[in-house]
Amino acid sequence: MAQVIIAPGKYVQGSGELKRLSAYVEPLGKKALCLISESGLKRNKEALDTGFADSEAEIIYEVFHGECCKKEIDRLVDTCNAEKIEVIIGVGGGKTLDTAKAVGFYGKIPVVIVPTIASTDAPCSALSVVYTEDGVFESYLFLPKNPDVVLVDTDVIVKAPTRLLVAGMGDALATYFEARACEASGASSCAGGTTTKAAMALAKLCYETLIDKGELAKAAAENHVCTKAVEKVIEANTFLSGIGFESGGLAGAHAIHNGFTVLSQCHHMYHGEKVAFGTIVQLVLEDAPAEELMEVMEFCIAVGLPVTLEELGITEVKPEEIMAVAEAAAAETETIHNMPFPVTAQDVYGAIIAADAIGRELLED
Predict the structure, then answer these.
(1) Neighbours of 290 (CB within 10 A)
(2) Which of these, 195, 151, 136, 185, lies nearest to 8 by C-alpha position?
(3) What is the pLDDT of residues 78-107, one digit of tens each?
(4) 337 an active-site residue?
(5) Which of 98, 148, 153, 271 is labelled catalytic?
(6) Annotation says 254 is catalytic
(7) β-bridge mates for residue 44, sequence order
(8) pLDDT for residue 93
């Protein structure tokens, strides 16, 4: 199997970049449709209008209806065709961005992605998660290429709730450990091949950045200021983790996250918060060195990521419910089978219970 690495055409990150968006759009097309939520438009329209005031490109706004579903994608493709749109811009959170990527694919036009939060590593990926109109997961849409441009305005990111940045750290925390497992097993990544040294280097840098700068970034973000630490963590959450997960591969942590989605008690938790606990479970599952496990768990405690089942919302641990999580995580199609050894539901169950016990002990100390 070939080694494959994929990435967006251009990644831009900096203060005030939203006002310079037109400079990155113009080479792609002269008429742009900006997909954005109603609240996002209120917050960002002035900056967007300022950026396009003297531009050769025209921008028109279309309010996102809230769900990345086939009906919404089809509606927007029809709008793009009717308006002769040459480039689509997605501004907002995950579902807005995934919808923009899908519209770009079906409409055969370039895609510019502008995340307004740094809570996941999805902005750079060649993937859209498609739901039903009622918000139930339906399918993954694997795209032939990554976005043409990903633009991150750090001034916008630091205005968002700090919990979202921390959740992004939780999602990014898994990147190196899952890529390492895939490298050991020779598993294929989302990029369609085995991992490269470049992807592994970025995944490792992602982890090192979180450990070194995560606490400092959280402290600054809580006061809505952008420091060098915040800039580095935003890059880790968005770009380093994005390349690392897509071209490095997914393994135990994300499968365990998926398992926890079967419990209603966890539905209030963000994706990255569940992935962080999934990372701890993966490390227990693979019998990682104690020093490594402790470093990860102490980092989670320091920034506010969950290390126990109770912190995930499971106040009463019922064996049958944890086994349901384990069975979902170990389903035949799950990425946990990219681990470099066989994994059963019973293995996952034991690792979850052990991880929770270790986490409770640490919190009591």
Answers:
(1) 10
(2) 151
(3) 999 999 999 999 999 999 999 999 999 999
(4) no
(5) 271
(6) yes
(7) none
(8) 92
